[in-house]
Design goal:
seven-stranded antiparallel beta sheet; three-stranded antiparallel beta sheet; 12 strands
């Protein structure tokens, strides 16, 4: 099996889309907010409430979450496709500019930016990091949840593009 064959097979698995965010207090005088689009995100346990996100080794988010245990997740609605796209770009501009016109609030527990209009938000604390191939699986306890909107359907990713449920 080739990498392309494996990638094509996994593209046939629909996934929800989230924005993972964290605040890096060590960057500059007021710190820096960092964001990353993820489709490798899932619920692990109800008791205790645990989630898992898969991060590419050496990515900015992987490096930051190795040091910063508190982070946030915004579960994106189908109308938030542009948010997912902007934080998924390779070679993108600084995260500060990406967040500049995005309606957010800062999580009281994590300090991470959470997206207004998301279907749900989670504030998390890393419990475990597990090396897995060229990624790190970050297992975290959910400390707080929020429901910025009760309307809409989730943004999904299928066959290499963002989709909506029909």
């Amino acid at each position: 099996m080739s990498n392309d064959e494996f990638r094509a097979a996994m593209a046939r698995l629909a996934a929800g889309v989230v924005l993972v965010t964290a605040h890096d207090p060590d960057e500059g005088p007021r710190g820096e907010d960092v964001g990353m689009t993820a489709t490798g995100f899932l619920s692990v346990s109800l008791d205790p409430p645990l989630v898992l996100v898969s991060l590419r080794d050496g990515s900015r988010m992987d490096d930051l979450l190795a040091e910063q245990p508190l982070w946030g997740v915004s579960i994106l609605a189908e109308g938030q496709r542009q948010i997912a796209g902007r934080f998924a770009m390779k070679g993108r501009v600084s995260d500060r500019l990406l967040f500049a016109d995005l309606p957010t609030r800062r999580g009281a527990t994590s300090g991470a930016l959470l997206v207004d209009g998301a279907l749900a938000t989670l504030e998390c604390r890393t419990e475990q990091r597990v090396p897995a191939g060229d990624h790190t699986l970050v297992v975290a306890r959910v400390l707080e949840v929020g429901f910025p909107t009760t309307e809409g359907s989730p943004l999904t990713y299928f066959r290499g593009t963002y989709r909506h449920l029909s």
